[in-house]
Write a structure and sequence with these properties.
The complex is a heterodimer of chains A (about 160) and B (about 650). A 4-stranded antiparallel sheet of chain A has the order 1-2-3-4. In chain A, strands 5-6-7 form a 3-stranded antiparallel sheet. Helices cover about 45% and strands about 25% of the residues of chain A. Chain A has about 160 residues and is of the alpha+beta class. Chain A folds into 2 domains: about 10-75; about 80-160, PH-domain like (Roll), CATH 2.30.29. Chain A contains 4 helices and 7 strands. Among the domains of chain B are: about 75-145, no CATH class; about 270-330; about 360-590 and about 600-645, no CATH class. Chain B is about 35% helix and about 15% strand. In chain B, the strands form 4 sheets. In chain B, strands 13-12-11-17-16-15-14 form a 7-stranded antiparallel sheet, sandwiched between helices. Chain B has a 6-stranded antiparallel sheet with strand order 7-6-5-10-9-8, with helices on both faces. A 4-stranded antiparallel sheet of chain B has the order 1-2-3-4. The chains are: A alpha+beta (about 160), B alpha+beta (about 650). At the A-B interface, β4 of A face β18, α15, β19 and α16 of B. β4 of chain A pairs antiparallel with β18 (about 490-495) of chain B. Chain A: This is YdbS-like PH domain-containing protein. Chain A: Pfam families: bPH_2. Chain A: InterPro entries: YdbS-like_PH. Chain A: Keywords: Membrane, Transmembrane, Transmembrane helix.
Amino acid sequence: MSERLDVTGAWQRISMRYAWVESIGGVITWAVIGVGATVPLWFVFDGDLPLWAWLPAVGAAVLAVVGVVFAFLRTRTIGWLERGDDLLVRRGMLFRRFVAVPYGRMQVVDITQGPIERMFGLKSLKFVTAAATSAIAIPGMPGDSAEELRDRLVAVSESRRAGL
Amino acid sequence: MTDGHQHGGPQQHQPWPQQPAPGAGAGAPWSQQQPQQPQPQQPGSAPAPATTARAKAVELADGEWHRLHPATPFLRGGLSFVILVGVLFSIFRDRLIGLFVPPEWAEGAVEDEFGDFVIAQLLWVLIGLLVVVVVGVLLSWLSWRVHRFRITGDQVEVQQGIFVRKHRRAPLNRIQGINVQKPWFARLFGACKFEIQQAGSDSNVDLNYLHSSLADALRTEILNRASGRSTHEADRMAAQRRAGGGIVDDLLRPDAEISHLAPDSLVRIGIGRVIASSLLDGWIAGAIAYTIGVLVLVVGFQQFWAIFALLPAAIGFFAAGVRALSAKLRYSIAATPDGIRLAYGLASTTTEILPPGRIFGLQVKQPLLWRPFGWWQVTFTRAGKQTADGSGQGGQSGQMASYLLPVGDLRDVRAVIGLVLPELARSPLVDQGLFGRAPDAFIVSPPRARAFRWFSVRRNGFHVHEAAFLLRTGRIWRSLQIVPQARVQSAAVSQGPIYGAARLARVQLHVPGGVLSPSIGALDQRDAGLLFDHALRTVKAAIDRDGSESWAASVARHAVLETAPAVQDGLAAPGPLAAPAHAAPQQWPAPQQHGSAPQPWPQQAPEPRPWRPPAQQAPQTPAAEPWRRPEQPPEQQARRHDGGEA
């Protein structure tokens, strides 16, 4: 099998700590689902669970582990590349997607930080253009570099803004 | 209240370069100055000459606060009146039906206690209704009193609301279009809806309702300012318009006052074609199929309940169909100095002016049943309020809002495309995009993509023109999407695991609005990567030379006016085709010179043979463009070999 779609360049990777953010989020979600599925069964069978009744919990555990593995794999693939006239964001290994936004087209650059991200000192950068379908984000950036990049992008996009 | 809340995403980052007139300044916007209320003009009275209308429009745009048409409360209240009648009808529906249904059918009817009560207490009910009506009238009169607008040098401001005050400002240079709607009801009062469209989902500035006689002049005045045109130039154009003709009675010819402003419509759609095309595609076809289904059920299976259960829906279908049909009637499109003017509608009319560069993407498509007739439909997307299902604007303009051409033949399509993108007016690319197949100017999917595009593998492709991206898809449902380069917001290239195994990819061009999402799949990943890279380079260049914000001041887009008559002439008898734009510097890298390059498709047809609708005057065959490939690195050529064999 030949090589797949790629864009070469000096890609900047996001912090690998973001994989932990994703993992913790995924594990919590699957734990809630697993417990939520098991507890009613526990009551139905009055504490004496047959073997199959553990299936949802086991399934959730397996999916959580898979999710953790994929979170690490996926985090390795997220990156951004500042080129002369546009910002390129890549994401995904199996489902690859490269999005490029010309600097002059950025309308808003947002920084967000969720509770788990805050624990790891990470921030997410979101870009808004006039097109709703653009929806681009760079998650898991170390706090300082996120603000640096934001300021740089805002400055460049201000100077190049040209209508819609 | 002083700084209200401003709407719209982009513009709130813009500083306001000029403050409004100091007398009416933001410090005391509610000071008790009496706005100059224009005299209500009765529809029957003598029409005002164009000069007066323009003078009044200039007066309206003088930076002072003005109120809307005096009939506004009534026209707005009309809706609640309809709702009231609807509620009453729904309460008494059973009784009304009971009047017409033989008594033996009504045996099982449920007792309607509420209805009995209402009839017993008729006097009180009437008094209650009267109070509701009086309060409603009072409130709407109050809201009319506080609903004011002013147009200053560079923005439009609207204040409204009794309990919740709303203050909206919109910069003129971000106008996406100005829409004048005349519902038939409002036309009786000589009023119309005036809508200044801004980018964003809920950022339009509505001046509902204005005097019809003033609306057009006011629109011209606003567009004059937005375009950055000098006063002298504006006066000259006004004089030209005056020479063209005066204002005719609004009730008789609802779009008369704008018709002299621009050359006649580039496109004429006969009433027969509108009806036939609607019969073959759209609501009417659905309504007929539905009605036939109901009739079969009733007559064939003796299921009489179906009449009551299903017929209302059929009526709704027909009503929607007739509304869509009547909106398409009297459709016209023309070039004006301020962009493209669209007008349509029979009883309720809409005229809309889209300044240059406000069209973010076009799609030319052909419903399957239109194919024998060679009809096409052109839809477009814009940044303002516009949704595919028509819920955005409601009524006829909701359905029409995305049509640039509801139905037309090839000549019409070319005229419309030429209006939006003069560079493409005479290009053979349009023909190739509509009818063409593989060996032509488009770069198409490789043969191994047949699994993903069974019939259209040789059609599914793209071309990068210096002004626009052309994406063509579909052999059965043909479609050509044209995205002006200066309007692309961002681009994406993506590849899932299955595409990855076949080394294919999809490219998406992001444009505002929800009507179109231009994308092309099943491309060779190299081609996709090239398109993606190239798209961004050309978009950047296009942004740099784009001058659509104050279009009169920039030369780039002024071409719309100059080329429009040329388009007409050119279509009647196309001269030698303009040199294709491939030589332009921002084009694809120089095409391969040596003919030995491996071609994914056999070259046995040197001239693309565009499919032509039968029984139709064929335009001159466009000169065939050589099948070109962008320059490829050697390893890619090697890859193409196995690609061709796969």
